[in-house]
Design a protein that fits this description.
The chain is of the alpha/beta class. The chain has two domains: about 10-180, 3-Layer(aba) Sandwich (Rossmann fold); about 180-375, Up-down Bundle (Dehydroquinate synthase-like, alpha domain). About 50% of the residues lie in helices and about 10% in strands. The protein is built from 14 helices and nine strands. The protein has helices at about 20-25, 40-45, 50-55, 75-85, 100-110, 185-200, 210-230, 235-255, 260-275, 275-310, 315-325, 345-350, 355, 365-375, and strands at about 10-15, 30-35, 60-65, 90-95, 120-125, 135, 150-155, 160-165, 170-175. The chain has a six-stranded parallel beta sheet. Strand 7 (about 150-155) and strand 8 form a beta hairpin. Helix 9 (about 260-275) packs antiparallel against helix 10 (about 275-310). The longest helix is centred in the C-terminal third of the chain and has 32 residues, at about 275-310. The model has no long low-confidence stretch (mean pLDDT about 95). The structure holds fe (ii) ion. Fe (ii) ion binds near residues 193, 197, 263, 277 and 281.
Amino acid sequence: MDFAFDTTPRCVFREGAAEAMGALVAPVLPHGPILVVTDRTLRDLGLPDPALASLAKAGYEAVVFDAVTPDPPAPMIERAAALARERDVGGVLAIGGGSVIDTAKLAAHLALSDRPLGDIYGVNRCTGPRLPLVCVPTTGGTGSEMTPISVVTKSDTEKMGVSDPVLMPDMAVLDPRLSVSLPADHTAATGVDAMVHAIEAYTSALRKNPVSDALALEALRLLSATIHRAVAAPEDIAARGAMLLGSMLAGKAFANAPCAAVHALAYPLGARFHLPHGLSNALLLPAILRFNRSAAEADYARLGEVIFGRAGADALIEGAARLGPDLGLPTQLSAVGIGENDLPVMARDAMAQTRLLQNNPRPVGEADALAIYRDAF
Ligand SMILES: [Fe+2]
């Protein structure tokens, strides 16, 4: 056995943590100006307000960047970094979903770097430090608060990852109250994303390790026991807390046993058709489990038992196929505006995701990707 395990060093889980944000972040963020990264929807909902009030009271000057858009485009991320530089902030705080956190992670690094974002796509391409960084997730899905990865929309058709130890946040603050306003469809899609993180970590080909395995199993136990309740009863704080905890554990798992073909094949759906990331994963999960089965039989059997209470790869594959419809999500690519003629170019695009594809338990070529898209169509 040979593995290393890295994670965000500090995690605070507390209902109402937002109201104590100023004191909670004090060991990490120097007092003075800090960049607070969020998005317009959350700002209009007033979601960051309790944290902003607490930060102000504790002596922080929040420089708010609320222009984050889903599937964060590279120029937007560079604008966030430019604002951090202009205002000479001493740290970065993200309050939001995966797009917000991914933007904040890169802004914290780019603010101190003279290299453009275009130079650092891929694995271990960053040079130099980043600003102190705290991430506060508002969805039970991304797990990005625990990973050294940010995903960027590089062009009109391409999403690319930046994976580098420097992007690992210093601290995560999980407050279940911050996710109660998440609509049902987003709760379902981001929850399935978290489950896919844990499933892909558990079967990761290159860096599967016992710590990630343990975290992935616990994440799946929590997420599968809770996701239906979180979707049906949005104000259920216990369910929201379990989803946040599950997605955080899954994030720790896949930060060290990276994701694979579900994510690789999902990226073209986000880049070309602007489908939400979690929904893209949910649409592809059953077809990829069927494709991988011959190479992952034993692991899938264990996951079937943990997630659906019945041992066997069949239990996992059948249960995963029921998950989308049970949660009210679309289940076929043809139902979300994708045409059959789009599939070949998506398969070609997916081949660029070598960072992810190399972790798949079964090799995926372009013809395989096309067959998977057809299966999911
Ligand atoms: Fe994901």
